[in-house]
Amino acid sequence: MLDLGFLREIKAILSHCKQPRHTMLFSATISQNIKKLGKEFLNNPTIIEVSSRRDVVNMINHKAYKVDKDKKAQLTTKLIESFGANQVLLFASSKISANSIYEYLQNKKIRVSIIHGDIKRGDRAKSLKLLKNGKTQVLVATDIASRGIDIKELPLVINYDLPQSTDDFTHRVGRTGRANQKGMVISILTTRDYRAFSKIERDLKLSIKREIYKGFELTDTQPRQTQPKKKSLIEKKGGFDFHKKRVEKRRRNRGR
């Protein structure tokens, strides 16, 4: 609730609580922002960590597919059809993106519902109920609108858009694979996502193979792979590279 902007309401509730009181804070992940806010309400708290975010993520089967930007929605449809999951939670990074993929899936005759910030709370609840009852196969959601929702034994999460942070990635993937159930997460990657996805992998100590789905071969210009600078033979042996030192000295002299 702290992360969703209910700080004012929480303060109002706490101001009416009698002293002494016990205050407990629960969160799937604890970001620096949550820690900072928590200091306002907690006094020398005891921290109990059930499992790390890395433990949660490592229990899930991960796949990543590279695709051209203009074929992203088409590939997503193909993946939904080929994996055949009866329930799919699909994450978009914005309301515009969510509406776009929602309309695309509708046009492809896929049973789909949607939740985001512009949709009324009651309608969000209806959309979630449709997925739980099997009336729809796919629920399109933004990160904020999906906080707190729970879908028992959800088999598949799709990152249609890559999340903005590692914590958001952890929140998303934590919707599947609960209570030791099998779960899968598929991340759709365009060229602009490569660097951010690599950072998520480093943060969570993951190594996820980037695949190319048959029929979706890449035509977009791919980012150049920067190769690490090779050390000279002298440097490899731990010696001193006199030639390199002379070149650096000349450069400094020219700059005077």
UniProtKB/TrEMBL annotation:
Keywords assigned by UniProt, alphabetized: ATP-binding, Helicase, Hydrolase, Nucleotide-binding
Organism: hydrothermal vent metagenome
Record field: compositional bias (Basic residues): 243-256
GO cellular component: cytosol
Keyword Cytoplasm assigned: no
Protein name: ATP-dependent RNA helicase RhlE
All copies of domain Helicase ATP-binding, residue ranges: 1-48
Keyword Acetylation: no
Pfam family of the protein (one): Helicase_C
Ranges of Basic and acidic residues composition bias in the record: 232-242
Domain Helicase C-terminal, first and last residues per copy: 74-234
Disordered: region residues: 220-256
